[in-house]
Each structure stands twice: as structure tokens, then as C-alpha cells.
Amino acid sequence: QVRLAESGGGSVQAGGSLRLSCAASGDTGSNYCMGWFRQAPGKGREGIASIDTDGSPNYADSVQGRFTISVDTAKKILYLQMNSLKLEDTAMYYCGAGLFLCPAMRALGRWREKDVPYWGQGTQVTVSS
What we know:
Blueprint: E1 2-7, E2 10-13, E3 18-26, E4 33-39, E5 45-51, E6 57-59, E7 67-72, E8 77-82, E9 91-98, H1 101-108, E10 118-119, E11 123-128
Parallel strand pairs: 2-11
Antiparallel strand pairs: 1-3, 3-8, 4-5, 4-9, 5-6, 7-8, 9-10, 9-11
């Protein structure tokens, strides 16, 4: 069992920055791919970034060049540095972990919720003009 807890969300003006954190605990092991998803009001949850066990990141086109995913393996904390925030980045942000999340992404070119057995509770990010 893996437990995830996000923090760092909040309200920010367009063009600003936030850093999200996701603390992992429990049976984390070293083989889990971890990623960030978000869900905007009225929309489904979408994957935006992941980091594989070898440290290689992948990003959705919508956040490429603005967001950076990283992990502190010693502290078991996943981060998402978000810069140049836009109104359309407003959403609930979730971190997720799964053995097959990154392999599936490499094979399919997209993330799938079905590959994420472990989710955090989410943290709200609101970007205003």
C-alpha cells in the first residue's frame, strides 16, 4: 500500500509560479513511476507529467516548457514546479503512482488512469487574471 499526500496548491495570478509537493509513504519501493494529473471543472482527469524510475520525465504538450517534475528519492517527495501559469491551468492537481504508468505512457504516448492504483487527495490550483 502506497499513501500519497499533495501540498502546495493555492491561488496565484497568471504568469506566477507554484510548487506542488507529493509525499509518499508506505510500501513505496523503487519501481513505481510517479506522475501528476489534473482535473479542471467539468472535465476529466488528465495526465500532465511523469517521471520514471531512471529519472526520465515526460510532459503533456500543454505544460511542456513551463512545468518541471522532479523527485527527491531520499525524502520520497515528488515535486511539480509550475511556472508561467495560465488561467487554463486552474484545476485540482493529483499525484499518482503505479508500476505500469510510465511503461504504458512510453508505449501509448499518453497516461491512463487505469495504470494508477494509488492517488493522493488532490490540491487545488487556481490561476486568476
